[in-house]
Amino acid sequence: MGTSIAEILEPEETSLEAFSGKIVAVDAYNTLYQFLSIIRQPDGTPLKDSLGRTTSHLSGLIYRTTNLMEKGIKLVFVFDCKPSKLKAEVIKVRSERREVARRKWEEAEVPEEALKYAKASAKVDAAIVEESKTLLTYMGIPHVQALSEGEAQAAYIVIKGDAELVSSQDYDSLLFGAPLVIRNLSAPRKKARIEVLNLKQFEEKQGISREELVDLAILVGTDFNEGIKGIGAKTALKLIKKYHSIEKLIAESKIDKAAGIENYELVRDIFLHPAVTESYEIKWGAPDPVKVKEFLCVEHDFAEERVSKALERISMPKVKQGSIGQWL
Question: What is the model's pLDDT at position 120?
């Protein structure tokens, strides 16, 4: 997912306490996919209710999200809308990979292999999105519908000053201009460390601009273009630092325009001038225990005692103003 530029980034490890009192714009699809992938039985089967409906995403929202809320973190979930036509091939490839993974999961005889392929078969569909929005509303958590890419809208919300960080596993948020990006915010604490990526610090250290970072990512490959075979993030960084743009690279005959970057101008425009909406409202409300329990416990067979404990934790969040000044 996204662009593969991890090897040139230097994330800083941090803790949940650093974000207490902060507003975080969450890449909803990314987070739901994470829940659906990780929250499973040992044999790979996702959590389900008595009617056979998947509930892993709801479990993640009520239990892991309330853990964040208990720390005083204010969340805004941002949902994708219609993807760019340039993303059609990537979506097709991902769908095919999920289907292959699903078949291998069914055929797997070793539990570890079954779990691996089950995770790779996870899919966020329309029903999962609507159920998630319903639960978020009952929990008092606002959500925003993007015009296109959720990461672009989340970055815009931060740029406008209506949130302070973007939470996503992908690096595209940096390309869309998010100043600060948190990774692994909703991941199990024992298995992943919380990291912060700082766009400004990266630009200053490497001596490149966001526009140049976008060109770098295009060379490597994004969700909207294949990239040039054989060029990784480190090589792309060297090229961009020397030539500063794809146009100059082409003019100097250092790369071939048709080699996976033929649409680079369109891709660049998607990242630098993404389709976003200014018509959004971010307003938190008090959780509605009755509706939450009716939705989770009555409709989807969640244990009422456990849901009640989760709701109790967020009734009095531990708000201790965290400091993110070190990244600003």
Answer: 81
Between CA 198 and CA 183 the distance in angstroms is 11
Q: What is the pLDDT of residues 97-151, one digit of tens each?
A: 778 877 887 877 777 787 887 778 788 999 999 999 999 999 999 999 999 999 9
Please answer whether residues 69 and 23 qualify as being in contact, where contact means their C-beta atoms are separated by less than 8 angstroms: no
Residue range 266-276, pLDDT digits in tens: 999 999 999 99
245: phi then psi, degrees, rounded to nearest 5: -160, 160
Residue 113's domain is classified under what CATH number? Answer: 3.40.50.1010
The full length of the chain comes to 328
Residue 162 lies in a domain: yes
pTM of the model: 0.89
Which backbone phi and psi does 304 adopt, to 5 degrees? -60, -40
Q: For residue 314, give every residue at least 6 positions away whose Cβ sits within 8 Å of its Cβ, in sequence order, or none.
A: 66, 69, 70, 139, 287
Taking the C-alpha atoms of residue 177 and residue 24, their distance in angstroms, rounded to an integer, is 15
Percentages of the chain per state (helix, strand, coil), in multiples of 5: 50, 10, 40
